[in-house]
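Q: What would this complex look like in 3D?
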Amino acid sequence: MQQKPGIWPNMRHIVKKTITFQLLLVFFVWGHPFTSGLLAREQDPCLSCHQYPGLVRLEKNGGLKVLHVDEQKYLASSHGHLACRACHLAVDKIPHVGTNKTDCQSQCHQSDKDQSLLANTPRKGFHTKQQSVIVSLEDRTSCKVCHQIYPHSKEPFVRSFLNMHTGYLACEVCHLKRSKFNIVSYDWVNTEAVVFEGKPFGSVYDPRRKSTRKPEASLSRISPFVMHKGKPKALMNTWDTQGALKVSSARTRLDEDEKKLEIRHYHRDVVKMERTTACEECHARNGLLDFRALGFSQDRAEALMTMPIGNIIKKYDAFYLPKLGGM
Ligand code: HEC
Ligand code: HEC
Ligand code: HEC
Ligand code: HEC
Ligand code: HEC
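A: Here is my prediction, written as structure tokens for the whole assembly.
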């Protein structure tokens, strides 16, 4: 954010390179995938992205593919002594999509008995008990009338990270034509109408202590605030909800042009955020959100400001993981 032209593009290039290199190094020093205890000492690099609950992709059939793997639950599982790539041989570069093929026999399960066992064991849902996701979140906004909780499906690799944020932020934080409003602050809005599968995640804001904690049943999300009748008010679009319900009802028959006009109407305050700069809009110093003012602890705020994942996403050109030793 707020970087000047001229010298900056070069600097950013160098910073990006360094971060990618560091990540690459992590992969290089990563030993044999069957070394037991590896994970206990040091986080598997795959988890640097897959540890996040709410990391979700929408499938073509409308279903959700949950990509989260909880580290503690994974370590406690019967396969927790294995590095991720022991089975995920097809994941050979970052970013990756469509690399769902798994191999149970690269070193294990090779006997005839095991092979027939494998043939009768479904692979789908292998990590289900280690995953968390929001299955329902009712905030009465117009956006939710037409869009799902996890609305991003287009751009591979960023879509799942963006989806994860809809459990942290109102759509308006990222999609508002800010120039049309006088935003006085970004603050928390609470919702009880949330259903988690797995462990609850995200944040709950405690206004008395002015601090955030892990949620149990309710969830707080960040929204822009504007002044309304002398008081700060969350700017989440609920005023269009009735109208949106009406136009999207099966009984309302609209031709293509009428549909376009309606959608344009409901998007009159909406902009599409630029994905190449999206992450550093917030995960940077002097970003859009003041994490300390929002009640995040010093450490957490620091971690949110210095997170390297955004840089990896922005860079986009793939880097290949080294081949696994002994395989
Ligand atoms: C013992 C083998 C094995 C290990 C070790 C393993 N996985 Fe998996 N993983 C699977 C199988 C089987 C599937 C399901 C594939 C399918 O649907 O065909 C899967 C699926 C996935 C998926 C896709 C989402 C899903 O749930 O279907 C992700 C993401 C994933 N694994 C990440 C990881 C990460 C990260 C680790 C290390 C912490 C890991 N896996 C370790 C076997 C393994
Ligand atoms: C830099 C972040 C990052 C790292 C590191 C990472 N992943 Fe992923 N992975 C993702 C994202 C994002 C997706 C979802 C892509 C999409 O939207 O299709 C994904 C998808 C997957 C899938 C599902 C593939 C599919 O299309 O069905 C598997 C399996 C998987 N990752 C395993 C792994 C394993 C194993 C490792 C370690 C070798 C790993 N990932 C490291 C971010 C990462
Ligand atoms: C009446 C239904 C409807 C409502 C209400 C609605 N949307 Fe949409 N939205 C759509 C449809 C359909 C599309 C895809 C067609 C298109 O690209 O115009 C879309 C596309 C989008 C896009 C992508 C635009 C682009 O340029 O690719 C964004 C961002 C978006 N909506 C955000 C929102 C937000 C935020 C709200 C709430 C303030 C909202 N929408 C309310 C129906 C709706
Ligand atoms: C963390 C910021 C962020 C939040 C929160 C967010 N979006 Fe987005 N959204 C983006 C970015 C960045 C893109 C552009 C991605 C791309 O280039 O395809 C996008 C694209 C979209 C698109 C079109 C592309 C696609 O993937 O289908 C739709 C529709 C959309 N957003 C709807 C919503 C709705 C509805 C909400 C609230 C439930 C929401 N978004 C919350 C950042 C966000
Ligand atoms: C509009 C601000 C905003 C944008 C844009 C944004 N984030 Fe975030 N992100 C947040 C906030 C706020 C949290 C923490 C929410 C919480 O814990 O309640 C967060 C949390 C995360 C986390 C989890 C960190 C953790 O330790 O739990 C990851 C990973 C992440 N963001 C990655 C990304 C990536 C990748 C992008 C770009 C595709 C992105 N973010 C864009 C605001 C943003």
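A: To summarize the key features: The two ends are 44 Å apart (CA to CA). Residues 134-273 form one domain.
Q: Very helpful, thank you.
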